[in-house]
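Table S4 entry, Helix-turn-helix domain-containing protein.
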Amino acid sequence: MLAQGRSLSGGQGRGLTMGVETAVDAFVDTFVAGGDLTRTRAVFHELGRTEYREGHRIDALRSVLTVGGRAIWSAVSDPGDDGEPLDRADLSAVAHALFGYVDVLAGAAAEGYLDEQQDAALDWALVRRRLITLLVQPDPPGDAALHAAAEAARWPLPATVTVVSVEGTDAEHVARAVGGNAIATVIDGATSVVLPGRTVRGLTGRRAAVGPEVELRRARTSHRLSRRALQLQQSGTLPDGVVACDEHLVTLLRAWEPGVADRLATRALAPLADATPASREVLAETLLQWLRCQGQVIATAEALHTHPQTVRYRLRKLRAAYGDRLDDPDERLALQLGLS
């Protein structure tokens, strides 16, 4: 016996055959004696679950039901030499009961199929969440745990990954939109997407922060940067849309720890405390541009739209105020961060 191109002689075939036999017996009991369909519905509900677990469509089971219904109808409508044919009224009653009966069992099978599909989806969400949590946790996982989690999630471990933080909690939808074998889960109220490589697409119209591409075991770094960047988007510090963390590293650094940015700014402006507010603003702007231009006077003058001699005059004042700090690489970085 074949259904949808599959042999029904094996274990699964015996299950389907048993289902048909159960259905035939139950129909006779129900039609003749008004029996209960609970057990038969349960059989077909489980058969529907089995079809999904085996990776098949529900169509084969429906075909088997159709074949069984036709067999019953054939036996009733043409009993042969040993039976007495039913009159028109009885045939009509049997047909009405039979078609309704087949619909009930088909519904039970479809319900089982969908129940198994939903359970499987929940299982996939759990195993993928476990994998992503391992990748972004503070302590890198051991090889055995990581490979076991990846195998359970059916996700080949890549050499490098990019972690994207996306506003919203529709993780499965986001993963499908991004594509490229991306996996996603919800962590602390936002969707975290992990994908091999660095190509990110499908997020138009969403607030999303793309972390840097990193080695697999440094996925936490990409995750932390992207999550912080998303928070800065939500607060209005960074623009909406899809932003790349690598393009906003200074902003991320200054905003990483509350109070640090204010402390940097206070420390950077302290040497100009005795200047007038207008002079302090001009000197601070000149110093920032000079630092950004890596100490080049001409480039600084062009950025400020002023004469190089004016820049040199201001720099003499700045050197008098800051002294050797302007020659120390660490101090120059701290000043640039504080003035930005």
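The chain has a mean pLDDT of 81.
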